Amino acid sequence: MSINHRKSLLSHSSAIMESIDSLTIAERSLPPDIIPEGDSCSLGPISEDTSFHLIDGKEYLKITSAEQFIKLLKCEKSDRVKVVSIFGNTGDGKSFTLNHTFFEGRTVFQTSCKQDSCTLGVWAAFDPLHSVICLDTEGLLGATNHENQRTRLLLKVLAVSDIVIYRTRSNRLHRDLYTFLGSASRAYTLHFQSALQRAGQRVEFGGSASALGPAVIIFHETQHTDTLPSNNSESAEDILRRQFVQMKLEIEAFSSLRYIGTKTISPPTCFSELRKAIVLELKNTTVRSARQPQVVYHTLKVLNDKFSGEIENSASVLFPDQYFTCPIKCLSCEQRCEMSMGHLTENLDHSCSSRCKYQHQYENCTYICKTCHTNGQEVIVIPKLTSSSESSWFGLAKFAWSGYVIECPNCGEIYRSRQFWYGNKNPEDSAVRTEIKHVWPGSKMALVASQNAAQKVLDGVTYISEAVANVGSPPTRLISSWVADQIAPKYWRPNHEIKHCHACRTVFAVNASKHHCRSCGEGFCENCSSKTTAVPDRGWHSPVRVCDACFKQVSANSNLDVLDDIDDTEVRVRKYGEVVVNTISTVASVLEYPRDLIKSSARPTYWVPDHEVSHCCCCEVVFGPQEMLHHCRDCGRGVCAKCSPGRRPVLRRGWDNPVRVCDQCLKQD
């Protein structure tokens, strides 16, 4: 550009250079943002200096060389320029803002009152007054099939800019402003910063990577609401930064953040404050220095070539499936259930179309009968040590000879692991096909590794022993009570006269234990005679069982009067009898440990170990001497007798005959 031409432009804009306040007066005569429909939809007078298409909507750079770029800008190669770009939603007047901020309202960038956007891609023009390359961009939220590609193009323009204007005309700042700037800052730090540094070295453009961040000016125009307040305690920029932090968005990539707010009750829009902020930022060279136009072109070309190619344009879904589908995830593969929420109330099981993965702790591998599968049926079969038609003892002996068995309810016995002396095939090769199932929390599935033959044998022995004990218990109890009365002291009440506890009046059951107080001789229950102390007046010189009332009396007064003459021989006989009983009880307790070891070894893998069970899974009662521990054959948890009266087969666990099941599992069925 010649010096004479520059001087003519400066003289033409002398009104602008004299005072910025005079610009405010001049712009009030400009046409409004929206005009009535007429022959032309362009806003402002037609200018000979028009913008040119720099990058189209498909990210193709339409300028082939730096010389062509400089020629279309109508500037000199030696000029030092800065780049100002504008962003915002479609229809917010970005082109109109550039025309009135840099070109006195002349239509350098095309505007339109039609619904279709007139700015596709990136358009460029040169402002010789301020030595600024203005870049007008395609609006956000516009109807397009290439939204992701458009966003990538905008980020490349932002990276090459020195000043970024975000134009919005919303009465309140929308989330898309914060999202765009926060995402742009993150992308600039992760991807564009290093690329710009390498591009600067190639085109001999100095400056550190930290000095390459653009300055951001948010130009907010409202009509019915106030703009962000600014006072001594908190500025509008502080409010914006706090909002970015609350939304967990970063803006560290930008060298500065400035907010310009204006309330336009009636047109035209006042751009004076925006123009002041831009002029001050253009004069600031502490962060960004002016560059030659060919440097700008080469930098933009490097970024456009590097970040290009096909990009997936997935349509954004306003109501994703996660809002309405079941939130339960598979324990094995962590895939989400694809059924709608509340499907369990409709008796519909969890479902997922993706394939699951096998994990040993869940044992989520099932066997499907191959013959039934060929016939169009999916029948789950389970390997068992014994056949359902064989008794426990005979089946266990047959297992030692022929191995485990797989039975199908339709086909019968389909596999024996040791059916032949040699050449036995695996079940997957001949009889079954494997399938990995999803493991849903609280669901039940047939397990391959659920072997319970040993527990069946123990259950049979326990059943026989309990039956014999129940049949022989009444006469045995009568004989033991008669023998106890024969060796009891005279002051003891006979067992056949004791019907209830002398203290709490609890009626004794047939098999309930009756305890005698060594002091008063009355019959008590376990809870009312838990104290021990010496009763020398009765001949008991070592601590023995007494009731609670006598324990208090003996503790208060150790010199009680002797009620009757005590025969030492009778007391001595009772003492000897207790020694014999205690010895037998000690031997019985020693035998409990091998029995518990056998039970632990025979326990199925899905059973909760006895030492890990402290209370009933249904009623929360604590297990102890008076509350026996049982296992539910379905879920494997510990349960008391009152909460497991039901009996039914549990085929998925290998129990073909009715077995103990807790109330919760019965309700689920």
Automatic annotation (TrEMBL):
Keywords: Metal-binding, Zinc, Zinc-finger
Superkingdom classification of source: Eukaryota
Gene Ontology cellular component terms for the protein in this record: lipid droplet
InterPro entries with a match to the protein in the record: Guanylate-bd_N (IPR015894), P-loop_NTPase (IPR027417), ZFYV1 (IPR042427), Znf_FYVE (IPR000306), Znf_FYVE-rel (IPR017455), Znf_FYVE_PHD (IPR011011), Znf_RING/FYVE/PHD (IPR013083)
GO function terms (MF aspect): 1-phosphatidylinositol binding; GTP binding; GTPase activity; phosphatidylinositol-3,4,5-trisphosphate binding; phosphatidylinositol-3,4-bisphosphate binding; phosphatidylinositol-3-phosphate binding; zinc ion binding
Pfam family, one: GBP
Residue ranges of domain FYVE-type in the record: 495-555, 610-669
CDD domains: FYVE_ZFYV1 (cd15734)
Entries under SUPFAM superfamilies matching the protein: FYVE/PHD zinc finger, P-loop containing nucleoside triphosphate hydrolases
Gene Ontology BP, a term: lipid droplet formation
Protein name: FYVE-type domain-containing protein
UniProt source species: Timema cristinae
